[in-house]
From TrEMBL:
It comes from Plebeiibacterium marinum. InterPro entries: UPF0251. This is UPF0251 protein OM074_18350. Belongs to the UPF0251 family.
C-alpha cells in the first residue's frame, strides 16, 4: 500500500456540522446555511471578544467586509432560532492555499500540495472528499 502523502495544512473546521432544533412538531424541513467565515466571525467577535478591527485583521479582510460577514452570520442565526430551522455549516468563500478538499462526511477542509487519487480526510478518514479549489 503506497504511503499517503503528508498533508500540509489542516484548517480546523467548526466542531459541528450543524445544529438541530428540538421540541418542535415534526422535523425541521428547511435549514440555514452558515458559511465557514460567518462562523469564524461570530466566534472571533462574540466568543473571543475581539473588536471588528482585530477580527478583520486575523481573517485577512477589511473591517467593512468583516462587518458584512458578521451581520450576515447574526441574521442567519437569528432566523434559525426564530423559525426553528436547522443550521448547517458549509464551506464559504475562504482563502484558498494549494489544492483544497472538502470532506463530505465531516465537512473538514484541508489542503494537499498535489491532488492525488484516493486522498482521505485527515479528520475522519473518509474517502468521500471533493476537490474544491486550487490557488
Ligand atoms: Zn472527514
Amino acid at each position: 500500500m503506497p504511503r499517503r502523502k503528508r498533508l500540509r495544512k489542516v484548517v480546523a473546521p467548526p466542531k459541528f456540522q450543524g445544529y438541530k432544533p428540538y421540541g418542535i412538531n415534526g422535523e425541521s424541513k428547511e435549514s440555514v446555511e452558515l458559511l465557514y467565515e460567518e462562523y469564524e466571525a461570530i466566534k472571533l467577535a462574540d466568543y473571543d471578544f475581539l473588536n471588528h478591527s482585530e477580527a478583520a485583521k486575523l481573517m485577512g479582510i477589511s473591517r467593512p467586509t468583516f462587518a458584512r460577514i458578521y451581520e450576515s452570520a447574526r441574521r442567519k442565526i437569528a432566523k434559525a432560532l426564530t423559525e426553528a430551522k436547522e443550521i448547517v455549516t458549509v464551506f464559504g468563500d475562504i482563502e484558498l492555499d494549494g489544492s483544497w478538499f472538502l470532506c463530505k462526511d465531516c465537512h473538514a477542509k484541508f489542503t494537499c500540495p498535489t491532488p492525488t487519487e484516493g486522498i482521505g480526510c485527515p479528520m475522519c478518514k473518509s474517502q468521500d472528499v471533493q476537490l474544491i479549489g486550487e490557488s
